[in-house]
Amino acid sequence: MRCRFAAALAAVAVSLMAAQACSGNSQRPAQPSAAQPSLALVSPASTGGCGGQPPVTPLPVWARSGFTPPDIAMPHVVGAAGNIVAILWATPNALHAPALPNRANKILWVSRVSAGPMTIRATLAGSTRTATVDLPNGPGPSYVDMPAPGCWTLHLSWGGHTDRLRLRYAR
Asked: Which of 6, 44, 110, 135 could be stapled to 66 by a disulfide with Cβ–Cβ 3.0 to 4.6 Å?
């Protein structure tokens, strides 16, 4: 079921990208500067911050199941340990706090190592504000809302594994 859902979402993403390219409004994704590191760089362990938009590049090979073509470029963030990837569905500003009335905060979680219920314990950068989100079906399609805009560090645990990554929620 996860593969069919991912394939359907990938088809929608490809259609939207094709429509945008054909309309002459094609935009290149924002490139991170040295002062503002990307959410996910080449190394999964280098998830340094929320200064820029996540890269729009092919997914890791282990996360491509159900995508056509398999090397389609998608906005995504890889966990620091490389065990999970958060696939986002829009650029720029894929996630918002509060969620936009016409667009949910969709994340497709793809785990490299296992399945099982997932708990997200998030902390807002520069504060003591926290949030907890339980995903009883584990990695897969989800809506993940945070209570405030900013850079959130997500500590993920599922199926005996853990990972962490940072996601930016815009206003």
From this structure: 6
For residue 51, is it within any domain? yes
Domain extent at residue 159: 2-26+39-169
Residue 130: count other Cβ atoms within 10 Å of its Cβ: 13
pLDDT at residue 144, as a whole number: 97
Q: Is residue 17 part of a domain?
A: yes
Distance CA 112, CA 40 (A): 16
Say which amino acid occupies 12: V
Q: Please work out, in degrees rounded to the nearest 5, the angle formed at the alpha carbon of residue 87 by the alpha carbons of 123 and 162.
A: 50
Structurally, the chain folds into a number of domains equal to 1
- Within a domain: residue 153? yes
* pLDDT profile of the chain (171 residues), mean per 10: 42 37 31 30 40 89 95 96 95 94 96 96 97 97 97 97 97 92
How many angstroms separate the CA atoms of 9 and 117, rounded? Answer: 22
The answer to whether residue 32 sits within a structural domain is no
The number of beta carbons lying within 10 Å of the beta carbon of residue 68 is 12
Q: What is the model's pLDDT at position 49?
A: 56
